[in-house]
Prior knowledge:
mainly alpha; 1% strand
Amino acid sequence: MTPASALDSRASWMRLAISLTIGLVGNVGMWAIIVILPAVQAEFNVDRGDASLPYTLTMVGFALGNYFIGRAVDRWGITVSMIAAAVLIALGFAGAAMAPNIATLTALQLLIGFGTATCFGPLIADVSHWFLRRRGIAVAIAASSNYLSGAIWPLILADILATQGWRTAYLVLAVVTLLVMVPLSLLLRARVPEAARVEAEASAALRARAVSFSPRTLTMLLAIAGIGCCVAMSMPQVHIVAFCTDLGYGPAIGAEMLSLMLFGGVASRLVSGALADWLGGVTTLLIGSALQCIALFLYLPTTGLTSLYIVSLVFGLSQGGIVPSYAIIVREYLPPREAGARVGLVMMSTIAGMAIGGWMSGWIYDVTGSYQWAFINGIAFNILNIGIMALILLQSRPRRAAPVAA
């Protein structure tokens, strides 16, 4: 296989398919706690803010895992990290299924979140090394595993939850995680040939973008923008089940709306990936963030069942491509050999935004007695994200690539 043919090849697409399957199972660690939130609140007799803490700690672990595991993948590859993560996730689910109180559940969700992170930023960064011409759509497909997981598993878990309870659902997840993730991780042992990596870096340099900011400043701006967009994103995603329960529709309806939202997010991610190959990551992210802000405004007057389904779908179609665009921006503007660490850091910030926003929305609900101000809070953070991305876009220019020796 020549250096050129090693990228965007049949092996690349096969690796992407395997990664998608792993992510479909592994990312359940991020979504399961949302589905069981009402049951946990009822069993442990806590208020909405305290019931949101297990989700918050899940996302803290998810954020930390994206950064630290991303650095490990840069050095040792994805397979060892993925197997270790599968074991950690399984142990976390099994332990959480026996948690005697909300504090123990919260602590174990931190471990689940840390392990689950391997199936997001680090897996996306690994896939990005195997593509050049189709990197945008490949990254979008890999990132879609997160939303596909969130769309499918709530429907499965809702049935188990209704008949056998959330503890049984967690034991099922512990077993499934090990049986699927470990064997498939062994199929990802191959590395991109060094010659192909060098050629990809030279080719990417011709299309790369630059700004007047230093790499560190740009990374920090992306991190702040990531917090802003995901505080906004977390309100519907984290609290839609509880929101529907409060309106009298029940958790099953809320799980359906979450699934509909995330199926819309999958479609949005695929379209955004294609757009990123054409327009670039910054423009694509700015479009998605503006549409997400509009969708959040639509939630404010909406309480009817049919209209909630429609707005949830609109929200999913609006915001799905935002987070993967950060990985594309990192590859467009920053050194490729630092992709794992820098993608991990920016992804960590987006997940931190989800963690902060998930808790903040619950706290605002406890203080005000409704989710109206939580939606307004999300809109304000969304505007922060839009402002930063507009600044980066205005500062963008083609980078002058240094001549590459023959």
